[in-house]
Amino acid sequence: MKSAMPKFLSHEFNLQYKIKIPVIQGPMAGGLSLPPLVSAVIKNNCIGFLAAGYLSAEVLEKQIIEVKHAANGLFGVNLFMLDNKKAADYKKPEIITKIEKKLKIPAQKKLNFAVNEENDKKIDIIIKQGVKLVSFTFGLPKEKWIEKLRNNNIYLVGSCTNIEEAKAVENIGLDALVVQGIESGGHRSAFLKMNDEIGLFSLLQEVSENIRIPIIAAGGIATGKGILAARILGATAVQIGTGFLLTRESSAVGAYKKALLNSYAHNTIVTEKISGKKARGICNKFVTELNSAQMKALPFPIQNHMTKEIRSLSQKKNKSDYLSLWCGQSVHLIKKELSVEEFLNNLKVEYLSAANNFSLR
């Protein structure tokens, strides 16, 4: 039972799972956290994450099996906590129809899409396949899920964008907390209607003074110095997304990677127009056109479904104009495409050097 498990991210935990540096590969939904990337992270003695948010239970199981066959180590599965919605209840915004027409995308006659996360099925698969780590985004897990996962010795991680969400995660008894600063790429993990635009270091200081469970810092961390700074401010580990997008094992298309390598912090923007939920990415032609139309975004993930055909076509053509180019504010600190091994080795060297220099002062 739970009492026999070492505390998450403790020294005993790191020894048991052979974790070498306190880096977690962030789960990136939409086909970006696929088994080749997760497996490479595990092979390099860090924690990888599959992103199950947009996956069916069947596809998730296939991905878990693929990772297990490729690598032996700790990895997790990230689940979305969403309310059920039906796309049939919403009309496609005019600007999206206009862009589809311009790109010669056939109009969808019916929108049958419904949000059904299949989380009960996914949790059964996670238990069946022996996954030992689960994280939750966009909300809190149901009590029945917590109990079921705990009974199978599975570590549970929540996420927050403010102190109120942090307290909510701790109060339901999860093992650790991802603290997401506004610098972070991709979707804001917010689930309470409060300020979710706090910088990572401000939020880290507040959360570390009020929360007892281990903290995982996320948002704008791309170097060893960033890891050390986060740890000094109370984080036990860090979660990185953008840095892994620019690895050879990443499934991001060439146009996506090229756009990242040519971007700076001021090129990024937080927008809800692509998916219906606030997310940080590069301000490309897609974002500009959606913003100029003064469109009110539909709820997530309905809006995400509405823009899917546009993004899919852009991906097939390997063009970045109409992709969702999610990335964090430190994108400019990543200078070139590397293997996962090279990227993590660089982080380790930078981190140890920064720690040594800091201790000498």
Structural notes for this entry:
Its cofactor is FMN. GO terms for molecular function: nitronate monooxygenase activity. Belongs to the nitronate monooxygenase family. NMO class I subfamily. It catalyses: 3 propionate 3-nitronate + 3 O2 + H2O = 3 3-oxopropanoate + 2 nitrate + nitrite + H2O2 + 3 H(+). Helix 9 packs across helix 15 (340-359). With 361 residues, the chain is of the alpha/beta class. It has one domain (11-360): TIM Barrel (Alpha-Beta Barrel), CATH 3.20.20. Strand 10 and strand 11 form a beta hairpin. It is built from 15 helices and eleven strands. The strands form two sheets. The chain has an eight-stranded parallel sheet with strand order 1-9-8-6-5-4-3-2. The model has no long low-confidence stretch (mean pLDDT 94). It is globular and about 55 Å long.
Short description:
It contains 15 helices and eleven strands. The model has no long low-confidence stretch (mean pLDDT 94).
Q: Key terms for this structure?
A:
three-stranded antiparallel sheet; alpha/beta; nitronate monooxygenase activity; 13% strand; TIM Barrel; 11 strands; 361 residues; Propionate 3-nitronate monooxygenase; single chain
The CATH H-level homologous superfamily: Aldolase class I
Number of domains: 1
Percentage beta strand: 5-15%
Enumerate how many helices there are, as a single number.
15
Distance between the termini: 44 Å
By DSSP, the count of extended strands is 11
* Rounded average pLDDT: 94
Helix content: 25-40%
| Corresponding CATH architecture | Alpha-Beta Barrel
Q: Rg to the nearest angstrom?
A: 20 Å
Listing every helix as H and every strand as E from the N terminus to the C terminus, the arrangement reads: HEHEHEHHEHEHEEHEHEHHEEHHHH
What is the CATH third-level topology name? TIM Barrel
Strand arrangement within the widest β-sheet reads 1-9-8-6-5-4-3-2
Assign the CATH class.
Alpha Beta
Sheet with most strands: 8 strands, parallel
CA-based shape? globular
Counting helices, strands and paired strands, the structural category is: alpha/beta
- Low-pLDDT windows of residues: none
Cofactor: FMN
Pfam families: NMO
Family: Belongs to the nitronate monooxygenase family. NMO class I subfamily.
Protein name: Propionate 3-nitronate monooxygenase
